[in-house]
Amino acid sequence: MTSDEPDCRTVVVTGASGGIGRAVAVAFAARGDRVALIARGRAGLDGAVREAERAGAAKAVAIEADTADPEAVEAAARRAEEELGPVGVWVNDAFASVFAPFTEIAPDEFRRVTEVTYLGYVYATGAALRRMLPRDRGVVVQVGSAIAYRGIPLQSAYSGAKHAIQGWHEALRCELLASGTRVRTTMVQMPAVNTPQFDWVRSRLPERAQPVPPIYQPEVAARAVLYAADHPGRREYWVGGSTVATLLANAVVPGLLDRYLARTGFSSQQDGHPRQAGEPDNLFQPADARRDFGAHGRFDGRARARSVQQRAAHTLGTAADGARRAAAAVPRLGAGFAARMRGTRALRAQDRSV
To answer: Is 118 a catalytic residue?
Structure first.
């Protein structure tokens, strides 16, 4: 939400029933915003709405919709504006995944992951821009991942979709800049986060899935999204020291990183406990239709509640923004001073001529 848009108070979040999306919705609610929460699971959505209302939302609305369906997304955007007012911030976070080697992922599973995780962002952003561009204001935040640059084993479908989001986001950003609009899109590349996805993702691993450590709490991710929404001028933000290290290593020694992940990427994504039969599976049907999983996964005892890198980046970014605003004000102050001096000289000349 930019400072020059005081009426930019309606926020839409996809994937808002759990994990990062839910933490983001609650964080905007805590600022007194109106929030529209989009997801498939009724119980999860209801729980998220209650949490947003407790946090201080001016109003919170739950909208059941599958972001892989463009008509459903358009209808959700229409309802959000009808009930809450013009959308000023849209956050895309809905996704799906399959934990398995590529050769064990069926075509319909691969298609579903791509439709939700990539095309869902495309459809939702289209719905947002159809409303923001005519008003010449608004921000779209794409929740990304270090995986947008660095694919990892056992997540080929998800890695491909996140890479697709990255390329599409870059192209879209260039088009918006070229058009001269004040609408902005930015992306936030996340580290491993303690979310319920590891309890409901479709998996063919022998052990329970886990995020690659270090693991961060979803509130860390939410703070990053809020900051990005307030400062959308940057093309993307990196969250967590592990994300920075991974992306830099991939840029410098990608082949070495391939070999490293070949050795460690399988064990680091499993927690050592056998996977149980009958565990939830949200690929085609929501796992939280009748049960609210909340924002956190089962890794609270290991997850970090803060990121030193994030705090430093936000502090430096805010200082840089202040410096840019001050620099931009200097010519205006100088012009005003010069105008006043010209006026003073004119008055003196007039006095002398009288």
So the answer is: no
